[in-house]
């Protein structure tokens, strides 16, 4: 029997420390500190009052396998996830070949199981080849071994309203969710940076906020008429928060995520011309960042998703216009949330559990993730040292690529241990 005792942890960072006894993949008992007598073979994790939370769930990860294993693999990305406190991740479909059929999604799912560090759920493409022309066989992917429950053309917007309408109608029938990368392509031709004063001064073509907001508004209306659930990827503007508030007020079944980088970084970063700061949607203005934080705190934005996007040196260390958009996120997400939400008092640790574990698990319909910390529940857990700090070094992260915008930054909160179904997947910054 595989037994672990987490000694002296504070559940959700609240109350007195308790002992959590894990056996056979589930939480067996939770008792007063010192009350649990583990078996002789039990592994003991000394928590010393650290914060115990349900394992994190990332609705938006790019693992790059198949096709760009020079930047990330399911192996390396799973390691980054485990080290970041994640017990489940959703791997986006913009791979090569595209995950628009059962063969590719089953490969990703199987490879994730073999690696075994985190539950890897493949996201299925909405349209064939992400081309936005013809619906992919969503039903076949949903019914495959991979059991796809999230569909997205992420990297591209499903821009054709008729295709989006059909995708939402199918998703309702299949009981799955469509996640939209909201970017009206006609409004972002040649766009390089957030449209505003800074982009104008630096000579970059602007990416207007309205390109995001117009699609979010349109899709909320389409979801309402289709009676469908809709998820919005990487929300980045105040106007999108306004639209989401309006839609939720009407009872439209829409959920939304924000990335850690849109909670912290602004377009002030662009002054250096360093493409490590290039991302889609672009880093926005300070007022947008402020609004992202408030919307996450009050629930208009449901959850945090990393949009972990590894890129090769040659695709990042080049002139701005030629660089690929995207940044690493799995190993820094918790710390950025601690810095932007916990430190300023916008969220407590129970709130962190909500936005990084419970809500994403609910949105994707995962029955065994984001569960309460209680006896009988699956032991998908993360132990966080809230008082520790660390310095980010891209070269030391588990990802193959190293494109972190937080290089050299000192950040709060360290993942001490991650458990997947009662097995230690990371401990003290090391795998397993
Ligand atoms: N976010 C990004 O800037 N890039 C993502 C695609 C995406 O999420 O739109 C990527 O795949 O690199
Ligand atoms: Zn996207
Ligand atoms: Zn993405």
The largest β sheet comes out as:
9 strands, mixed
Shape: globular
CATH fold annotation of the largest domain: TIM Barrel
What percent of residues are in strands?
15-25%
Mean of pLDDT: 97
What can you see in these coordinates?
- 57% of the residues are buried.
- The two termini are 17 Å apart.
- α4 (161-174) packs across α6 (209-226) and α6 (209-226) runs parallel beside α7.
- The protein has helices at 74-83, 102-115, 138-143, 161-174, 197-202, 209-226, 238-249, 260-264, 286-298, 313-316, 333-342, 349-364, and strands at residues 3-11, 18-23, 26-32, 43-46, 51-54, 56-61, 86-91, 119-122, 150-151, 177-180, 193-194, 206-207, 230-232, 254-258, 303-304, 381-391, 410-420, 423-427, 430-431.
- Strands 1, 2, 3, 4, 5, 16, 17, 18 and 19 form a 9-stranded mixed β-sheet that branches.
- The longest helix is centred in the middle third of the chain and has 18 residues, at 209-226.
- It has 2 domains: 3-52 and 376-388 and 410-431, Roll (Urease, subunit C, domain 1); 55-364, Metal-dependent hydrolases (TIM Barrel).
- A hairpin with a 6-residue loop joins β1 (3-11) and β2 (18-23).
- The protein is α/β, with parallel strands linked by helices.
- One zinc ion is lined by residues 60, 62, 92, 154, 307, 309.
- N-carbamoyl-L-aspartate binds at residues 62, 94, 154-155, 181, 279-280, 307, 309, 324-326.
